[in-house]
Amino acid sequence: VSDSTLPAKPFSQIYATLASRHGSDFCVFPPNEWADVPSPGGVEIVAKHHQWVTLERAHAEKLSVDWAAGKLHNLMPHFHMNANAYTWSNNSFADNRNWGCLDEFWHMAALYGTMNNIDTSSERSVPLPDFVGGPLKVSPSAGWQGMCDTFVIWSKYLHALGNNPFERLHSALDHTSIPHGGNQARPGWWDTISTVGLRAIRNSEFLFVRKFIDAPRLADGGSFSQMYAQLVLAA
To answer: Do the domain assignments include residue 205?
Structure first.
């Protein structure tokens, strides 16, 4: 965890959940956030995922070796990443306009390679070995995919179609616990939450939640840290 990320479950539950899975957890953005460049048979695509990933040991060891060897260090220039002026409201699937950070693309690309010769006029399912929540659906209508362990609000995708655990937790919050929405460059954050909101976090699908400011206010009164420990972290 970090200074703005908190566990959403007791440690024992987090450990048991992760230990029971086979494979790596990537929380994959809806496809209009993926990067693409023209290729002879269609387009070459690389999926965009959250920076918070959970890797199985074999994947972690492979990626450590691959990075040291220089694998895909040219990923950003190859996909002309961040080369165009950013227009948050005008970004669509396979439009050759690509934005993001290297660690939002590199890990999946290094493990599974890029997807080549994609015909964007038809849907395609891509099986990926040890990718939890697969196969990966390549379609402009796909929503969040993979396994999303960390709750964060990107307001543009809070109500994305398809399987959407972010919207499910958000809709379980009472009005007082609704976090600030953030913007295109900054995710949402909490500065106030109620005990209803804390229980919603504990009952959610997520293992971690973010972002919290330092010393957030408990709307019901009392100590945020004490109630968080009691309602969320206690086994």
So the answer is: yes
- From 105, 139, 173, give the residue that closes a domain: 139
The DSSP secondary structure of 47-103, one letter per residue, reads --B-S--B--HHHHHHHHHHHHTTTTTTHHHHTTTT-S---TT---TTSS-----GG
Positive or negative CA dihedral for 119, 122, 123, 129?
A: negative
Please state, in angstroms and rounded to a whole number, the distance separating the CA atoms of residues 202 and 197.
Answer: 9
* Series of mean pLDDT values for 10-residue runs along the chain (235 residues): 88 96 96 92 94 96 98 97 71 88 97 93 94 96 95 88 92 97 86 98 97 96 97 96
Threshold 0.85, pTM exceeds: yes
Classify strands 190-193 and 212-218 as parallel, antiparallel or unpaired.
Answer: parallel
Radius of gyration over every alpha carbon of the chain, rounded to an integer in angstroms: 19
Tokens of 65: 């070796």
Domain extent at residue 120: 24-139
